[in-house]
């Protein structure tokens, strides 16, 4: 999939109940999408990240993306006395307090549990819920065995000893839990992010909190359209946890992803599956009356645009239209240029807006 970058972002701060300052970023235009905080992010670095950049490029194509750094991490307050699930939930409430219209809430990894708790507490604010690589119960909440307790304690202690240090065995293992199929450059960037985003103490205290998360009973009470996606080879959060979420949340749609990565990379087929699923779920995959727009598209480009809107990949479009994949790739690039966008999701939003006469 072709990618050129992401829109500029506006960084701002909100104040949590205990006085902690939470760093937020807003980018893109259109319907609001909020991403609940999770590891490992740093809003001032993510735009240039070889791991997160493609996520931001595509998500901002669906609307205005609001995201923020966890307390104690990134640009948020570093000197934090309380790290708890309730504090994280309070921070999310502070971030969304000024958002008036219902929004889509995306929860990745630990953000899934936060999103579930928030959606149940604020049903009037959450229009749709997307949970990616998430879980309802942390390690010690789902497994009380001696082995689980030893695993949790070992990982936490290793964090206190090895977090943020160069070329330690811990850093290599921790990175492989998130992006085992990443390139050397992506692994190096991820390890450097540890140093920049949090101290060893904050990391260990955060991990201790993650182990005890339990929102399974809350998930069963949800009454909001929910999409659950999970990689079948995820080493950080077992696939069974995503399946449990989908089985527990009433009427949730479940999409397995063929990947070993906890954070999907844009070079793997699963990334296109995720984007297609988002397009369907967020309502951007409807048929487009492309001939009614004034972008100067050729008939061939209109055909390609219609299939892009249905969530088809370049190879699928090529097979359907009996073209080479290179030809389709060039036509998609031409669509980006004519419509003035950078991503497939932006393309669909812009054309839909042109049809209705609205500004995206």
From TrEMBL:
UniProt keywords, alphabetically: Hydrolase
Superkingdom, taxonomy of origin: Bacteria
Upper lineage: Bacteria, Pseudomonadati, Pseudomonadota, Alphaproteobacteria, Hyphomicrobiales
Signal peptide interval: none
Domain HTH luxR-type: 290-355
Identification of the protein by name: Helix-turn-helix transcriptional regulator
Pfam family, one: Abhydrolase_1
